[in-house]
Amino acid sequence: MRLWRAIDRLLAFLPFALSAVALALLLSQNPFAAPYLERTTEAVALELRAALAREVTPEWYMAEMDRALLAEDLDAMRMVSAVGGRHGIAPSPALLGRMQALEAQETGALAAVRDCAVCAADITACPRVTLLAMCGVTVEMTPLGDLNALRRAAQAGIAGEEIDRIEVALAGVGLGATGLVLASGGTSATVKVGATSLRLARRLGTVSPRFADELRLLSDVGFRPDRLDNLTLGRAGLDEVADPVKLARVGELASDLGRVAANASLTDAVLMLRHVDDAADARRLARLSDAAGPDTRATLDILGKGRAFRALVRLSDLAIGAAALLWLVAGQVLIFLGERFGRLVLALLRMPVRAQARGADARTDMPRPRAEPPLTRPQPRLRPDPPLRRPVVHRPVVPRPSLGHTPAE
User: For the region Disordered, what residue ranges are annotated (predicted)?
Assistant: First the structure.
């Protein structure tokens, strides 16, 4: 009997023991040290496409299109129209007429010349994003724009004013990327575009405060304004004007933003910098642009920064297995504790009932007192009289004649 009870207890404890051993082995591999893994570009594209398909509905299309038409925002109208077209949503004839009217109003010959002149004079006053690329950054994309930024910094330093170190660092990176490949591994064109997009974003005010603080830390490149004239005349190299190692760190950041501009567009990269808070966000944005391509800005605007960046990673199988085993072991422990607690509560509830039962048994087991004999002698029982017998009547016996005899015989 004891053997069977021991086997029963062992079998009851065995599942918990196996789960605990498996969990210990799995935790020894540190599954939660790096629980997320980066998805491939193809997997990210599929995830983003599925998320956009859930968000881009006819109701969303009509609401966003009405908002863009009321605000006379041609860029927003074009973005909503392009996204809706890729998801099989077409405007109604009335809505199409309103869209064509806004397109004709904003893209006429006189309006285009006027708006381009405004962008060339001040890029912060550009009415449309497309004009920013065509009219506002033509000079900025050349080495003249970088030299002009360094010239402004040198004049400020000579006048005793505060030097914009971020502008100096970005101009130095852009100027060096014109003919050099920095240690970041990005091509010179990519780094140049990234540095220019950062300078334009700062002028447009699309750089977030946190990202501006990080740029301020990275921009300490040891700028020497007294050597700027020699650099302009070709008598000195860039390493004599600024620290090339520190410029390379800024170049890594510019390389990521250059990838965004190459996959989407320069203007989109400038506008999407409002979603970047640090260098890690810049790398995530570059990976997102690799998967989304020209739809990167639309993806960020529709899904938001959090959902779009979460599509870049997934939970590792090791982390999922460890979480499942933790849940299993916790459930087994709770079941065991619940069983013990339930038995304790049941025992407490049974105590009054058992006390009453014991009291009743004690009362029934007590010896009963013997009955006292009566004080008077009981009357004896009388026997009943025997039944009376009927008198016997004697009748004379008459002989009967026998058969076969005659009187003569």
Answer: 357-409
CA distances from 205 to 202, 211, 220, 384 (A): 5, 12, 21, 134
* CB 193, CB 266: distance < 8 Å: yes
Helix (H), strand (E) at residue 161? none
Q: Quick one: pLDDT at residue 212?
A: 84
| 265 has a pLDDT exceeding 60 | yes
Tell me the one-letter amino acid at 399: P
| Mean of per-residue pLDDT scores for the chain | 76
pTM of the full structure: 0.64
CA 22/CA 116 separation, integer angstroms:
68
Q: Tell me if 198 sits within 8 A of 204, measured CB to CB.
A: no
Q: Record the tokens describing residue 78, joined without a space.
A: 């074009």
- Residue count of the chain, please give it: 409
Q: How far apart are CA 254 and CA 170, in angstroms?
A: 8
Look up residue 163 and give its two tokens. 């030097």
- Other C-beta atoms closer than 10 Å to the C-beta of 299 total 25
Q: Which of 305, 281, 118, 272 is nearest to 200 (CA)?
A: 272
Single-letter amino acid code for the residue at 301: D
